[in-house]
């Protein structure tokens, strides 16, 4: 990608994280122009997600490489350096790299790096301006701080699974590792805020970020609904807790999403289903009344929508300015003109082959994101980085 090298050009990141939350953060920093060195453990042949496949990118002989799709989803714009931090030599290398870095991010259990002299307390003595982000399952404090944290457990402990799934079914996780991904987003925001403070004052600091805390933070309206009312929210499938009709509806040949956000939109929707009297029915005339009579309304609307094909539902409701949309599969998503126009699918030349990746959603008018390096094979940059006088030189 031509043009600017990004708003974070010159920022140096030492990445001791693995799996998804930390790598999501450091990939985003890398897309924004930061120089990211990813440390990987030789004993495990690198980041755990290198083995989380198939699918994998095949090497020149057709055999699976260590570039799994999972690993590639969060590890572009990074250099891979193999260092065993359990050894004295490895610890010395990390300290040398940290001395050049602006940011260090890690996701070891609380206290896990202290035995190597690589915790914030130890490193900040010699590097007072270091921004040090620690991601863990439950945070550095609290009765659960020593417990491991994984996305699924965070979704369970933090409550989102209790809100997700069919009302009559089991609690359901979100289809992707959303607790990890959102934790990585919070980490990015926190790091940039701490970096701003460091640039103004010279002071670094530690950011203590818990996977569970981040998940609880994005309970958003359902969390505050409970705190306000004391009523425990229930699973509603695809239904909205505060708006009706706002749900997935079956058509004659598929499904559509209806998002009727106000009473005027509801009136226009009733015109489409040829039931204009519903807009004046006291049970349905206002959103609070529709919420109270959700089941009765859906008993009328679902058969009406089910009698029409998807294309007609979407075109007719769009003409009436009623929010509506398709439910697309992955092949449909990445085949749309919108994805192409927004560059949300990109291609990069990796070793050993070209790979397709999801693009960055940030669109800057002056300092666009850049895709400078494909996800690296394990240890690809070890010799270059460790032999360089300044390991963060591009």
Query: What radius of gyration results from the CA coordinates?
Result: 25 Å
Give the overall pLDDT as a whole number. 96
What's the overall geometry? Answer: elongated
Query: How much helicity do the residues have?
Result: 25-40%
Query: How many E-type strands?
Result: 13
Under the CATH scheme, the architecture of the largest domain is 3-Layer(aba) Sandwich
Residue runs with pLDDT of under 50 for 5 or more positions:
none
What is the first-to-last residue Cα distance?
Answer: 16 Å
CATH topology category name of the largest domain: Rossmann fold
Question: In percent terms, what proportion of residues is strand?
Answer: 15-25%
Strand order of the largest sheet: 5-2-1-6-7-8
SSE order and pairing:
Blueprint: E1 12-16, H1 21-31, E2 35-40, E3 56-58, E4 64-68, H2 69-72, E5 78-82, H3 88-100, E6 103-106, H4 120-126, E7 131-136, H5 151-157, H6 160-163, H7 178-201, E8 205-210, H8 211-217, H9 220-229, E9 246-250, E10 255-259, H10 263-272, H11 287-292, H12 294-306, H13 310-319, E11 324-326, H14 330-333, H15 337-341, E12 345-349, E13 354-358, H16 382-387
Parallel strand pairs: 1-2, 1-6, 2-5, 6-7, 7-8
Antiparallel strand pairs: 3-4, 9-10, 10-11, 12-13
């Amino acid at each position: 990608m031509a043009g600017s090298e990004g708003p974070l050009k010159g920022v140096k990141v030492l990445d001791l994280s693995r799996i998804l939350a930390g790598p999501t953060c450091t990939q985003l920093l890398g897309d924004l122009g930061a120089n990211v060195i990813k440390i990987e453990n030789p004993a495990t042949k690198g980041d755990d997600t290198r083995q989380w496949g198939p699918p994998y990118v095949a090497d020149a002989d057709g055999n699976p490489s260590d570039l799994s799709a999972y690993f590639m989803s969060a590890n572009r714009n990074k250099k891979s350096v193999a260092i065993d931090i359990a050894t004295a030599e490895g610890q010395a290398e990390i300290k040398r790299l940290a001395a050049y870095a602006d940011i260090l991010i890690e996701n070891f259990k609380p206290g896990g790096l202290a035995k190597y002299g690589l915790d914030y307390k130890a490193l900040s003595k010699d590097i007072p301006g270091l921004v040090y982000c620690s991601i863990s399952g439950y945070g550095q404090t609290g009765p659960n701080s020593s417990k491991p944290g994984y996305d699924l457990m965070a979704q369970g402990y933090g409550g989102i699974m209790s809100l997700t799934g069919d009302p009559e079914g089991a609690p359901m996780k979100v289809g992707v590792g959303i607790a990890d991904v959102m934790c990585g987003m919070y980490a990015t925001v926190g790091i940039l805020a701490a970096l701003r403070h460091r640039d103004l004052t010279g002071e670094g600091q530690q950011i203590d970020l818990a996977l569970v805390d981040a998940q609880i933070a994005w309970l958003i309206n359902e969390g505050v609904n409970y705190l306000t009312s004391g009523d425990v929210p229930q699973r509603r499938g695809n239904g909205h807790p505060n708006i009706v009709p706002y749900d997935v509806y079956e058509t004659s040949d598929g499904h559509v999403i209806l998002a009727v956000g106000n009473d005027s939109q509801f009136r226009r929707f009733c015109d489409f289903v040829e039931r204009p009297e519903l807009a004046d029915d006291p049970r349905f005339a206002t959103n609070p009344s529709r919420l109270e009579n959700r089941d009765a309304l859906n008993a009328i609307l679902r058969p009406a929508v089910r009698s029409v094909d998807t294309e007609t539902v979407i075109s007719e409701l769009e003409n009436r300015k009623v929010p509506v949309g398709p439910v697309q599969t992955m092949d449909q998503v990445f085949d749309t003109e919108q994805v192409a126009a927004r560059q949300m699918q990109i291609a990069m030349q990796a070793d050993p082959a070209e790979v397709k990746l999801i693009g960055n959603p940030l669109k800057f008018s002056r300092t666009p994101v850049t895709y400078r390096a494909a996800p690296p094979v394990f240890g690809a940059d070890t010799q270059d980085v460790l032999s360089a006088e300044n390991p963060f030189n591009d």
